[in-house]
Design a protein that fits this description.
With 425 residues, the chain is an alpha+beta fold. The protein has nine helices and 19 strands. It starts with a strand and ends in a 6-residue tail after the last helix.
Length: 425
């Protein structure tokens, strides 16, 4: 196992991602941002790299550029590269200038573009440095429980809104991967939870990683000299609770770190090789495009629907063909018979956790989202029936069809079979 880490905190004010209501660039730094690469090589010489970063996400074009930078520096095949983003809403917008969708001044678009291009190149350097740092290691994994994630799909007389739903499903698991030196001392830890990094709201303008960054800092303080990597799970319909204050983010980070430490200090299951990986670009089905009059009516509806409808009308005006599918990458990594890592693209709603478990078995399973590319929200058939923000679709492309659920689950099952996941109940 090898490690490499880079401080990716913007050098000056930059537009922050995640809240369209913001009307000015960042104002200082509450906590630094990092990109961290973890390289793996099994006993057969199979190599792979995971790169995590403290930004909201990469869309397809930026993700492709980052993968190309890694491939150019390492020669790794695509299926052995896994990208994951913390989804902080107090980090910079990451877009190439031509694709920026935020309402910001032209000079800020240039700042964002320059930052994005530097970050993409950093990915190649980090992957190469992590592979150059390979050292004998032993891996083990275990589970904890997070208490602060809260389902945010609140049902009201006016429909589903982003709010507070204590009866709604969330994945409270905290997966933990321990990396030890041969002498048994801790060298690195990978941990996650399925919760938006949105404790801090649109009123906050200081750069930080929210609760995930505070958790990582506390873990690294507890074990000096280690590196901690955060990988977010199926968090699309889950917010921290309570939220709105820096104190809340600190408290959530401390509680998550305490749970990770508890797992690290208890019995854990060994993770062995060989490492087998598979990736597939899957055609996710979109719903039939509404006619012009329907789209015009949708532009007068909720903002998350109206923005997509307006872009779809613009496509009609340009006589561009309407998409019927959206191609997105799904990946599965298998560590011997000990652990399966499922890496889903997009902002994935929590319904996919039991769906994937029922498809491939409940044991020895780590489900990550926000991986390899984020195109927007990936809803379940249930969410599409109920409505709400998470069904907003892909801006300018369309809305997902209910069949997207079965397409995703079938792809995960197919990839799990390909990498040899054991049959589990």
């Amino acid at each position: 196992m090898g490690l490499a880490r880079a401080d990716i905190t913007p050098e000056g004010p930059i537009w922050l991602a995640g809240y369209a209501s913001r009307d000015k660039p960042s104002e200082g730094v509450l906590a630094p941002l990092y990109a961290i690469a973890l390289a793996l090589e099994d006993g057969q010489g199979n190599r792979a790299v995971v790169v995590t970063a403290d930004v909201i996400f990469f869309r397809a074009d930026v993700a492709q550029a980052a993968r190309e930078a890694i491939i150019a520096k390492t020669g790794l095949p695509l299926d052995r590269i896994l990208l994951n983003w913390s989804h902080t809403h107090t980090g910079p917008v990451v877009e190439f200038q031509e694709g920026i969708g935020y309402n910001m001044p032209e000079e800020q678009k240039q700042v964002v573009d320059r930052y994005t291009r530097r970050l993409v190149q950093e990915y190649g350097d980090l992957a190469a440095a992590a592979l150059a740092d390979l050292q004998p290691s032993r891996l083990a994994w275990g589970w904890g429980v997070a208490t602060f994630p809260m389902n945010r799909r609140e049902f009201t007389d006016q429909g589903v809104r982003i709010g507070f739903n204590p009866r709604g499903y969330v994945d409270r698991s905290v997966p933990v991967l321990r990396v030890d030196r041969p002498d048994g001392t801790l060298r690195a830890v990978v941990f996650g939870t399925a919760c938006h990094n949105t404790t801090l709201t649109g009123q906050h303008y200081q750069i930080s990683v929210d609760y995930a960054g505070f958790a990582r800092s506390r873990i690294e303080e507890k074990f000096p000299g280690i590196q901690a990597l955060f990988m977010i799970g199926c968090a699309a319909d889950v917010n921290p609770h309570p939220r709105g204050e820096v104190e809340h983010a600190l408290r959530h980070g401390e509680s998550l770190a305490a749970e990770v430490v508890r797992v690290l200090e208890g019995p854990m299951q060994p993770v062995r090789g060989p490492l087998k990986t598979a990736i597939e670009t899957v055609a996710l089905p979109l719903a039939p495009v509404p006619d012009r009059s329907q789209l015009e009516a949708m532009t007068r509806g909720p903002s998350h629907i109206a923005s997509n409808a307006r872009r779809m009308l613009e496509r009609l005006d340009r006589n561009e063909p309407n998409a019927t599918t959206y191609a997105a990458p799904l990946a599965v990594w298998q560590f011997g018979a000990d652990l399966t890592l499922v890496a889903l693209p997009g902002e994935v709603v929590s319904d996919y956790v039991p769906l994937v478990e029922n498809a491939v078995g409940h044991g020895r399973l780590w489900i990550a989202a926000y991986s390899n590319e984020v195109f927007g929200y990936l809803p379940s058939a249930k969410v599409l029936r109920e409505g709400g923000y998470e069904m907003r679709g892909i801006i300018g492309e369309g809305f997902f069809a209910p069949e997207v659920e079965s397409v995703v689950v079938d792809a995960v099952r197919r990839l799990a079979d390909r990498v040899g996941r054991p049959k589990l109940p």
